[in-house]
Write a sequence for this structure.
């Protein structure tokens, strides 16, 4: 049971970050490496604020806003300074390492005996004692679904359609008199805002901040996006955002099974890399088969 709960807890938390990468990777076709810095940015801000006695629920919008600023800066470097997309993300990711250290004050900041969004007076009053072991899953599920439905709503607005149009055909957006650069900046702000929000929740679930906790985050997010969009591509009743959330759960389940089969926890990055490679290969093979049948 503890293994299943862990999969759902972390799968749902990482799903929010995966939704952000869905915006940048799938919609904008932008390899945003900033995520490796914006994820721990949310965690650093959260740990710092909680140690100062702030309400843990206030850390959610604050972390999102901080991540959005990081994404906006990446977009400005790319659009206004004309730096290549991959390099602009790497520049911000590198800068955020120092920023995160400055915010937290040290490389590791524990929040073990403090209230968080999963364990506080409000949550304990709402969720009965009999369901106490499911508190983290319930809270993570509620927040993830709120984020998912807000994203669904946004993508159905005029601004959301413009965002998708920039990823599909920039020329059409320009012909409409809309600045495609600012649309990209907006998309990156949303994507990194979601990544920081995910880092905020992760820090509260793990009860600590560590400056290295963002390493490889972008790979986890991309794996979740590719699993979801590939496996559930033909399932018409599922929204793409729902597929991404489920993809995150599947990815975390695969990692948990690999560790359960005897691999060490220290092999987690290797497991992540191998899984991601397999997903990319399978996805490429499926595309080749589709093209050959056409």
């Amino acid at each position: 049971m503890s293994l299943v709960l862990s999969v759902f807890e972390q799968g749902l938390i990482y799903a929010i970050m995966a939704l952000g990468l869905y915006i940048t990777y799938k919609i904008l076709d932008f390899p945003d490496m900033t995520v490796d810095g914006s994820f721990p940015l949310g965690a650093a801000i959260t740990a710092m604020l909680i140690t100062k006695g702030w309400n843990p629920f206030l850390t959610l919008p604050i972390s999102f806003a901080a991540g959005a600023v990081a994404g906006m800066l990446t977009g400005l470097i790319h659009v206004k300074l004309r730096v290549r997309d991959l390099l602009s993300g790497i520049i911000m990711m590198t800068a955020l390492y120092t920023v995160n250290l400055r915010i937290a004050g040290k490389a590791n900041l524990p929040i073990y005996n403090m209230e968080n969004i999963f364990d506080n007076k409000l949550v304990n009053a709402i969720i009965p004692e009999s369901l106490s072991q499911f508190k983290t899953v319930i809270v993570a599920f509620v927040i993830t679904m709120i984020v998912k439905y807000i994203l669904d709503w946004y993508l159905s607005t005029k601004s959301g359609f413009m965002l998708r149009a920039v990823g599909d055909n920039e020329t059409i957006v320009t012909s409409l008199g809309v600045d495609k650069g600012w649309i990209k900046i907006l998309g990156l702000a949303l994507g990194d805002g979601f990544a920081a929000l995910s880092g905020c929740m992760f820090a509260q679930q793990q009860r600590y901040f560590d400056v290295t906790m963002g390493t490889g985050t972008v790979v986890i997010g991309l794996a979740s996006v590719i699993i979801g969009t590939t496996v559930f591509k033909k399932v018409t009743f599922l929204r793409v955002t729902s597929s991404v959330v489920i993809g995150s759960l599947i990815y975390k389940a695969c990692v948990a099974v690999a560790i359960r089969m005897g691999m060490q926890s220290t092999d987690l990055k290797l497991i992540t890399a191998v899984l991601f490679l397999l997903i990319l290969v399978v996805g490429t093979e499926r595309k080749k088969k589709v093209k050959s049948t056409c």
Observations:
- The chain is about 75% helix and 0% strand.
- The longest strand covers residues 108-110.
